[in-house]
Design brief:
By secondary structure, this protein is α/β, with parallel strands linked by helices. Helix content is about 25%, strand content about 20%. Bound molecules: uridine-5'-diphosphate-xylopyranose. Pathway: Nucleotide-sugar biosynthesis; UDP-alpha-D-xylose biosynthesis; UDP-alpha-D-xylose from UDP-alpha-D-glucuronate: step 1/1.
Length: about 775
């Protein structure tokens, strides 16, 4: 009888079972219903239950993913019954136990018909709870590790609420998350806690108190990878100023190592103030800073170099590498670049340089930008001597030689020529784009002045790679963190205006529409301009293929963004040409763009099922058990069900490349199916209602898994990196303390033991000869 449980909930007594049970003539057999019993885990569970002669087993299955084949040894057995039935329809049977497993579990199956997946979890679970209520049966739900989403707690305990979003795939990945997976390579564990601050982009003048793009990012550092810091407890503040002395450039701090790809390097900026506030967080780096920032961080990782704001160069050395060395970009993102000569670490401006140039010593009235008027050009040569940082970026620059730099200059504010200041709408009727003069700045500053609802994207050179970027400070997808932010779901080009319109024009900082060109030949031309991606980036249109990492590669290298056009309802056009996008800036993990894809049917379905279980338990006294099962593998998995272990084994046996989905460093914990079944039965027969994690805590990256499969099954196969979905959880590992202490359960079969067992099953089903490695086990 269920009374109190680990969750502190006192329950009603459960409904009593059938009077027949109490008859002295009643057979003592336990009648057990297994929904989804013809599936992979279900059929192994049936095997185990059937081994007990006191059990009668009834399987209901709609055979969507399950197969009679899995149960063939029991068909016809007097204690076994197989019924074709879909749990979304009511089912009546006199049973004592219900193992409710029915639900497609592989993404390709549960995405196939998301509504049906939800129905299976909601209506199916309701039906089974109704049955449990009527007959007084105890019911166990196999929930999933996916309820933890992309977990920020690792390993995951049952108390963890998860990092989830109900309207996305599993959740939605921001570029930060991808960045993290991408950069924080397991080869560099010391960097796993590196905090990356946004480069101190200088702002352009603010309008109506609304800072323009980039202005608020320079001073903001973010926990990287997780959560807020003491100095920045929640979100970046509106427009704090960065103390130049606090900026440190971590040079070459990460090398991406991909065998198939050229090695690339990245530079991250960190904020020294934050480091001292939170020394534990930084460890190595903090140490180095105390040593005047000049020690090696790690021979492989580069050095920490004190950096003055004025010496900021573009943070991506690839850009420099791919660019002729005499065309190094000294870039103040919000300002327009212009070329000048640098000789022996000094800049000399050419005679036609005009307007403004960057200087370390001056500020503009409206913000902390370091802008030097053209009249100060004479002094400029001296001031930029601090550019001695520059040679560090490339060995070829160690011996300074005359090189050309692009020095920041500023263009005429667009409103003077094209825009009515009184009118928030654009007034560009007579505007003829002048490709020589109109730049990203024009576009972004113009858009700042447009009521979001007035903005319509009308043309994209490459619509599939259009991005709407919105400064972090504009909104937040989690009101609980900051009520000042707004949720902005992913937009398509069609829905963009509608999605922007809920944001009050007055309290938003501005928007940039960036349209990426598909023309690689347009990259890296000398007269290019950089537009900051100092903001969240949203896919505006479905990508042609969801290769977000490839995409990230595009984004982390400045690329030319081709012609960008936006249009107001009045037909007025804004335009920009030769816009480059700088690498995206990490944003807090809780600032996730929403991405309305279709996969959350599974996770959310299981969450609702858990809720229903607990509600029936509390309201009706139903005896419930909830298992949160982690990745499980073993014989009888569908050969082509798309999950990683089955894929790798089938590929290895077929001699095909093992498809490691990028980044390959994502982890999973794989439980052999016999261990899983043992855990489920213990949970069902124990006293604790759960939820309890059932899974093997051995954690592997997908690369490690591929290598293991290769070693054990077919050393000849190659490993191929393939694209991944944007929402793939980066890590997953159960904390099984509860299972150990409450159920006395822990897995017995290691991955190296389990894989060959599964291999044998796959060989038979694929009609292949016996395994050569079998003898090892
Ligand atoms: O061929 C492949 C397939 C998958 N993968 C990767 O392997 C990892 C695991 O993917 P799987 O599809 O096997 O499983 P997932 O962990 O994503 O989801 C699963 O986990 C929890 C269960 O409840 C669900 O059954 C299922 O959704 C992912 O990171 C995926 O990107 C590959 O590297 N190559």
């Amino acid at each position: 009888m269920a009374t109190a449980n680990g969750n502190g909930v006192t329950t009603k007594p459960p409904p009593s079972s059938s009077p027949l049970r109490n008859s002295k003539y009643c057979q003592s057999n336990m009648r057990i219903l297994v929904t989804g019993g013809a599936g992979f885990i279900g059929s192994h569970l049936v095997d185990q239950l059937m081994e007990n002669e006191k059990n009668e087993v009834i399987v209901v299955d709609n055979f969507f993913t399950g197969s009679k084949d899995n149960l063939r040894r029991w068909i016809g057995h007097p204690r076994f019954e197989l019924i074709r039935h879909d749990v979304t329809e009511t089912f009546l049977a006199e049973v004592d136990r219900i193992y409710h497993l029915a639900c497609p579990a592989s993404p390709i199956f549960y995405k196939h018909n998301p509504v049906k997946t939800i129905k299976t979890n909601v209506i199916g679970t309701l039906n089974m709870l109704g049955l449990a209520k009527r007959v007084g049966a105890r019911i166990l739900l196999t929930s999933t590790s996916e309820v933890y989403g992309d977990p920020l707690e690792h390993p995951q305990t049952e108390e963890y609420w998860g990092n989830v979003n109900p309207i996305v795939t599993h959740f939605s990945a921001s570029f930060v998350e991808i960045n993290r997976g991408h950069y924080c390579d397991r080869d560099h564990p010391s960097l796993s806690n590196i905090r990356v601050a946004a480069p101190p982009y200088r702002s352009s003048p603010s309008y109506d108190g609304r800072p323009s793009i980039g202005s608020s990012f320079g001073s903001v550092s973010y926990d990287f990878p997780l959560g807020p810091t003491p100095s920045h407890p929640s979100q970046p503040s509106a427009s704090p100023d960065l103390d130049p002395a606090s900026v440190i450039l971590v040079e070459n701090c990460i090398r991406k190592k991909r065998s198939s790809e050229p090695e690339t390097e990245c530079i991250h900026f960190v904020d020294a103030n934050d480091i001292t506030d939170n020394e534990d967080f930084f460890e190595d780096e903090t140490e180095l800073i105390k040593l005047d920032s000049l020690c090696d961080l790690n021979p492989d990782l580069g050095v920490l170099v004190p950096l003055d704001l004025a010496t900021l160069v573009h943070p991506d050395p690839n850009f420099i590498k791919d660019t002729p060395l005499d065309k190094v970009c000294l870039d103040d993102i919000n300002l327009i670049s212009k070329e000048a000569d640098l000789t022996l670490n000094t800049l000399k401006l050419s005679s036609d340089d005009s307007d403004f140039i960057v200087s370390p010593n001056e500020t503009t009235p409206n913000n902390s930008d370091l802008i030097l008027n053209n009249s100060d050009v004479d002094n400029f040569e001296l001031k930029v001597s601090q550019l001695d940082l520059l040679p560090k970026l490339d060995p070829d620059l160690i011996n300074p030689k005359p090189i050309e730099l692009r020095v920041i200059t500023k263009h005429e504010p667009i409103e003077n020529t094209y825009m009515s200041l009184e009118d928030s709408n654009l007034n560009l009727k007579d505007f003829e784009p002048n490709w020589n003069n109109e730049h990203s700045l024009v576009l972004s500053e113009s858009i700042l002045r447009v009521a979001p609802s007035d903005l319509h994207l009308t043309k994209c050179v490459f619509p599939n790679l259009a991005y709407l970027t919105i400064p972090c400070t504009d909104f937040n997808v989690r009101d609980s963190i900051s009520p000042n932010f707004h949720v902005v779901p992913t937009a398509t080009l069609d829905t963009l205006p509608r999605l922007l319109s809920p944001i009050p024009a007055g309290d938003s900082l501005g928007y940039v529409i960036m349209v990426k060109s598909d023309d690689p030949s347009s990259y890296h031309t000398p007269d290019s301009y950089i537009l900051p991606a100092t903001s969240l980036s949203f896919p505006v249109k479905d990508l042609p293929s969801p290769n977000w990492l490839t995409l990230l590669d595009h984004l982390t290298t400045p690329r030319r963004l081709s012609v960008t056009l936006a249009k107001t309802p009045h037909g007025d056009a804004l335009s920009a040409k030769d816009v480059f996008m700088a690498p995206p800036i990490p944003v807090p993990l809780d600032m996730r763009p929403l991405c309305p894809l279709i996969w959350s049917c599974y996770d959310e379905g299981k969450r609702v099922a858990e809720t229903l279980m607990f509600d029936y338990h509390r309201q009706h006294g139903i005896e419930i058990r909830i298992a949160r099962i982690f990745n499980t593998y073993g014989p009888r998995m569908n050969i082509d069900d798309g999950r990683v272990v089955s894929n790798f084994i089938a590929q290895a046996l077929r001699g095909e490349p093992l498809t490691v989905q990028l980044p390959g460093t994502q982890t999973r914990s794989f439980c052999y199916v016999s261990d899983m079944v043992d855990g489920l039965i213990r949970l069902m027969e124990g006293d604790n209602i759960g939820p309890i994690n059932i899974g093997n805590p051995g954690e592997f990256t997908m690369i490690e898994l591929a290598e293991t499969v290769k070693e054990l099954i077919n050393p000849e196969v190659t490993v191929k990196r393939v694209e991944n979905t944007p929402d793939d959880p980066r890590q997953r590992k159960p904390d099984i303390t509860k299972a150990k202490t409450i159920l006395g359960w822990e897995p017995k079969v290691s991955l190296r033991q389990g894989l060959p067992l599964m291999e044998e099953d796959f060989r038979q089903r694929l009609g292949l000869s016996e395994s050569k490695v079998k003898a090892k086990f």
